[in-house]
């Protein structure tokens, strides 16, 4: 079943202009990286996923942005003016 879903995803990415998207291979995340019931990632699994995402962004853009703006003031209700 998973293979079928992956094939459909690959075809969809090739068929449409999805050059702005990429797929991250999560094969390094194994059973031991999930919680006891297996539905969520534990702390080690989350660190692995973050590393995979970071590596993917670095490969696509050369480096990760280091000068991200920090919000120092925000209105509680921005839609009310």
What does this structure look like?
The longest helix has 19 residues, at 43-61. The protein has helices at residues 2-15, 43-61. It is built from two helices and no strands. The termini are far apart. With 81 residues, the chain is mainly alpha-helical.
Gross morphology is extended
Structural class category: mainly alpha
So how many helices? Answer: 2
Order of helices and strands: HH
Radius of gyration: 18 Å
Got a strand count? 0
What's the N-to-C terminus distance? 50 Å
Task: List segments where confidence is low: pLDDT < 50 over at least 5 consecutive residues.
Answer: none
Fraction of residues in β-strands: under 5%
**Mean pLDDT figure:** 78
Helix content: 40-55%
Largest beta-sheet characterization = none
How is the quaternary structure best described?
Answer: single chain
């Amino acid at each position: 079943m998973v293979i079928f879903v992956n094939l459909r995803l690959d075809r969809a990415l090739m068929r449409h202009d999805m050059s702005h998207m990429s797929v991250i291979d999560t094969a390094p995340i194994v059973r031991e990286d999930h919680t006891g019931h297996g539905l969520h990632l534990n702390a080690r699994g989350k660190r692995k996923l973050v590393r995979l995402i970071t590596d993917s962004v670095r490969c696509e853009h050369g480096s990760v942005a280091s000068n991200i703006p920090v919000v120092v003031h925000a209105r509680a209700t921005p839609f009310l003016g």
